Structure formats: structure tokens, C-alpha cells
Amino acid sequence: TKHLLGIKNLDPEEIELIFETADNFKDVLNRPIKKVPSLRDVTVANVFFENSTRTKLSFELAEKRLSADVINFSSSGSSVKKGETLLDTVNNILAMKVDMVVMRHSSPGAPHFLSKHIDANIINAGDGTHEHPTQALLDTFSIRERTGDVAGKKVVIVGDILHSRVALSNIFALQKLGAEVMVCGPATLLPKHIGSLGVKVELDIRKALEWCDVANVLRIQLERQKMRYFPSLREYSLYYGINKQLLDSLDKEIVIMHPGPINRGVEITSDVADSEHSIILDQVENGVAIRMAVLYLLAGNVE
Ligand code: CP
């Protein structure tokens, strides 16, 4: 495989290979010397047309740990603002002899479009409301790390499913690894045809939490909502917010995840996000090893 555009077309065996490679890199990252020479003659461009903290820094750190040469591009402050197209922008970057492109873009399909027109390896770092493959890989890797295995686990994805690339990539990854998947949120934030993906659909958050082993709580994506938000944030947090009182009222413990950035007090309260049940910062830590694994495997360094 030359590109990582989404989880949809990955085999379970390919995901397992990424996990095993990430296990090795996680060991490396816990050593005093965290750098390996694997990508020494490889140049990677991180091309971000949309804001990011975790994904951008995590990819950059992964590339540097692998000894790649790294250049960073953000559309704000670039000649995109003068009207330069996506293809011209990327072709100009590639003219500087770049081997791999990590791209985030607000348009679904933007990395797929690029992959048909340029020669470099492309990694999708989030394309609009479509996919965010490395997020789903680090999420499922973190479930495996905390619970021992993804297969057989019941995972509920909570909240703004309609606008979430994290939800779609997680649904594909969880199903390929043998988990049962439920989505839970207000009907206005669930895609009409979500049931056709083979997931359970639940509108009642209490029932969803009673069912699951793991809850992946999503951010309400105000920037993607074209219409006035319904329900209001106050109503959302009242009916769907994950808080300590709600979790304490269940007669079991649930692993809590969130891809970040968090709207504290909206989809999740601080006493849950920062509790021992939360693996939110483990997800971020694992993101570096997962991205090292993806970069390493795509660069063709499989032994
Ligand atoms: N989870 C995630 O993609 O975060 P960023 O938008 O900060 O990269």
C-alpha cells in the first residue's frame, strides 16, 4: 500500500501489523534515546489546510523520532490566501523533492484526489467529515492496551456523529477488529443512514452506557454545523453530557475516551475527563507510536 487514505479499505491483518509495529516503537519511545534512523533519507511535508494541535504535533514528532526531514505547511499565512489551488500548492511542495505528504483538509476526499495526481505517499490526517484514519488506529490501539483486546468489546461512540470523521473511521476500525459498535446522540446529530453501517443506534445515553465497556465521547463540532445548532449546548450537556454523577449511578466501570480537543463541561465534565477511568492522554501518547508505525510501513521498510 502506498497511501493511508482511510480505514475503510484496510484489512484487519494490516491493522494488526500497524499495532505490532507501534508496540515496537512504543518501546523505543520509552528508552532514553528515542530516535531511530529508519526514515533517514525521507522528507515528509505536513500540509494542514485546517487547524490541528494533536495530529500535527504528533506527526511531526513521529517523523523526527524516525529521523525524517520535516517541513510544515499551514494554509493560513500561505499563498493559498492568494488563490493558489490545492494541486498547485502540493505540486510546488513536491518540486522541492518531498517523498511523503501528511494532509489535513476540510473537504472530504481531498487526499484521495491528490493521490490520483501526485507521486508521493499520502497520509490522510483528517478530511472534512469523512475519515481520520490515524485517530481510529490510535483509539483502537488504546482500547487494546487498556482492556487486552478489541475483539468482543462493546464500544459506544457518543455525540456529534453527523459531523465526525473520527466516528466513521472508528466504526470501520472497531468492526474490522471484532468489536460491537453503538452510536448514541440526539437524532439531529446522527446521519440518516447510520444503521446501514451495521452499528446499533441508541438515543438514551443511560441505556448506551449500561450496554458498553468503552465510551468514546466526541466533540460537538460547531464549526461544521451549517444550521443553528439543535439541541442547544446547554440542552446537549443536560441530556448527553458525560458526568461523574451519571457514571457513578451505573453498577460498573467504563473506559472513557475523547479524541480532543475537549469542550469541557459540554460533552464531558472535568471530573470524568481527568479521572482514572479516562485514557484521553494515553490516546495522545499512543498517537506518536501509531504514526511512527504508519510512516515506517508506508515508506516500505517492512522486513
Ligand atoms: N484529535 C484530533 O484530531 O485533534 P487535533 O484536531 O488537535 O489534531
TrEMBL record:
Oligomer status and interactors: Heterododecamer (2C3:3R2) of six catalytic PyrB chains organized as two trimers (C3), and six regulatory PyrI chains organized as three dimers (R2).
Protein's gene: pyrB
Domain Aspartate/ornithine carbamoyltransferase carbamoyl-P binding: 2-145
Domain of life: Bacteria
Assigned keywords, A-Z: Pyrimidine biosynthesis, Transferase
Residues where carbamoyl phosphate binds: 54-55, 104, 132, 135, 260-261
Aspartate/ornithine carbamoyltransferase Asp/Orn-binding domain mapped to chain residues: 152-298
UniProt-annotated binding residues for L-aspartate: 82, 165, 219
Record EC number: 2.1.3.2
Record protein name field: Aspartate carbamoyltransferase
PANTHER family: ASPARTATE CARBAMOYLTRANSFERASE, ORNITHINE CARBAMOYLTRANSFERASE, MITOCHONDRIAL
Gene Ontology molecular-function annotations: amino acid binding; aspartate carbamoyltransferase activity
PROSITE patterns: CARBAMOYLTRANSFERASE
GO biological process: 'de novo' pyrimidine nucleobase biosynthetic process; 'de novo' UMP biosynthetic process; amino acid metabolic process
Pfam families per UniProt: OTCace, OTCace_N
Pathway: Pyrimidine metabolism; UMP biosynthesis via de novo pathway; (S)-dihydroorotate from bicarbonate: step 2/3
Known catalytic reactions: carbamoyl phosphate + L-aspartate = N-carbamoyl-L-aspartate + phosphate + H(+)
Coiled coil, from the record: none
Family: Belongs to the aspartate/ornithine carbamoyltransferase superfamily. ATCase family.
Described function: Catalyzes the condensation of carbamoyl phosphate and aspartate to form carbamoyl aspartate and inorganic phosphate, the committed step in the de novo pyrimidine nucleotide biosynthesis pathway.
